[in-house]
Amino acid sequence: MEDASVAIRLNPFKGLDGPTGTPVPWSPYGRILESRPQFILDPLMHAGCYYVQDSSAMFVGHVFRKALDRFGPGLRVLDLCAAPGGKTTDIAASLRERFGGAFTLVANEVMKARAATLCDNVAVWGDPAVAVTSVDPAVIGRAMPGCFDIIVADVPCSGEGMFRKDPRAVEEWSPELVTVCAARQKRILADVWPALREGGVLVYSTCTYEDAENDANLRWAAEELGGSIIAPDDEFPQYGVRLTDCGSLLRAGEVPGEGQWAGALIKTAPAAAARSFDLAALRPLRNGTPAPVLKGRDLIPHPDSVLAIDFDKSSMPMAEVDLRTALQYLHRDSIVLPDAPAGYVAVCYKGHPLGLVKNLGKRCNNLHPMSRRILKDI
Question: What is this structure's pTM?
Fold first, then answer.
């Protein structure tokens, strides 16, 4: 089997700057690259101009966009198993293109360490309408009944679709693992189900080929929880996408990317009376662009603020730097900006903000977050 292709998804709200490649048929901003560059050494990736994502994983975004046709502005979306953030950023871009800023997207990841990575990737992408939480699906089901119009659940699975990419997936796979995963997926869906309003859409996906985790589980949700499966469209047979009873299957070796399955259903069961949308009940780790902090007489902007797609570039000095200086900044080295004024300055590469420094004249205090610094020698 050939090696998997390398793909990226461009950020349409940051100028579509990034590596060039062949379009992904089911993703308007997906690009398949001829070879793998050293992404970590490309400042444009750190600026949120694109996200590195498997082309098959982008198919979930396609299913989501088809679901959007049923809704209007103001909708609320939950990305339930969101880390590391590829699907979250895809969903955010689709929502913003369709509805401007008239939406709410909650990206949830129950594992705390993975939730921290999700926060970083959401910050870099820069959409201010995205909140990040880290709670069990049951907490969302109890705290927010009937609150979401769409729930995307890319659930943990047995991982057959990752065999080519991850040797550990081969070692860990067993029939028993499939059984355990299928049961866990049912639990996840049942726990979060109350949060989906009647008439809302569940987009359900895995990266496995097992019927027990794919079609069978979506049928179970329809029959036991109360829903109607949305028949998949045979849109991409020429690109290797197969139809199953309830969804679409992409198999590694038949499509450029790895393995993926995705389907959707409409909730027909009556939902509990919807409560007011109180995100505070989920104790968000992040909710939009962080505000400046007043420290003494100093109003300190948050480093993430310059990465936001609605950042006003006239609000502070901007310092354009070359590739070497950009990488030094991202490495959290001390840099010198002799032509920039004293105070807080946005460091930019090819016009795209990378983050903040406090310019002291002969040196700068580097404010790039430690969690996002380049560790590799540059």
Answer: 0.96
